[in-house]
Fold this sequence. Notes:
This protein has about 375 residues and is an alpha/beta fold. It has 15 helices and eight strands. The model has no long low-confidence stretch (mean pLDDT about 90).
Amino acid sequence: MPDFRITNCHIHTNTAQHAPVGFPFPAARVLRNSPGLILFIAGVLRLLGQQNLADQVDRLYQFQQTGAQPTQDLIFREVKKHYPGNTRFVILPMDMRGAGYGVVPVGLRAQHDELAALRMADDHLGQVLPFATLDPEVPGSVEECLRAITELGFAGLKIYPRIGFPPDHPRLMNEVYPVVAERNLPVMTHCSRGGVQGRSVDDYTADGYTRPYAYLPVLRAFPELRICLAHFGGQRDWAAYVNATETQGHENWMQQIRQMIGSGEFPNLWTDISYTLFHFEDYAPILRLLLKGNDLESRRLRRRILFGSDFYMTRQEELSERAICIRLRDTLGEALFWQIAETNPEVWLGEAEESDKTLWTLSG
Ligand SMILES: [Zn+2]
């Protein structure tokens, strides 16, 4: 396999130090300080015969333990073990200072600086692709993000609108996207109904900031900007699709993304399969079906899907990174797997040219 190189386009190494002390609920602080309590709860559940619940609590413990690592380096070493030695990782930081859950012990600047150091560490050379992040509502955050891009030379931008801002926030439109586009860098954004949500942001507003159509003003103002809507709409919308049920707002984000990419109207719109595909048995056959077709829509989609995992959020799931990778390769087959794990990431990152540009000039 030495001729091939996986790029995992979506992982996290931020620690509990980068999250508010009261996140996601005030008692979290207690759990964080006494991890033994979680194991005790799991043990009690097991005694009560609640095997599945106990397993879930165990995985919550794994997740909590990973986040409790003192450095991003230690978390990064955990994920690297699952992949071939030449694998590269897009690392996505988070600015949770504006989420409304209290003080964040280690600020954004230190988080960015630590990623910059990680990229230069002997053990990780060539494997770290750090992205810069921001919350336009937090004073100084935009400036710090621009510093990471222009001074530290970060590889792209990550945004997380559910925390409490629209993707066409004026500071993004006027100060950030122009710099990102000018430098030919990609954008990653969280696009599912789950995940972190600002405390004062209700579900309706959060969905309004997150839905694929919320990016229409951005796509129209910056048609050359390569934007990846992560999680392919998210597990809730994939479940709704499989079960033919309705989601909130009567729109299915998985189908919205498919339609937007498939139409050819937005040649620089991307999506990734991170987290969502960890429910492998349910969703992998659908992914294969979506990518295999010979119609124009499928051929476009095939070139706009990125492999990503969402480590270490996925520590809450049953399957490991390596298990998912192997299953995915088996289900998709070699050609499709390397398309999404190697070829597509290089185009999205701005390292390689699109090999078939005509796909985007043909009409369906
Ligand atoms: Zn993520």
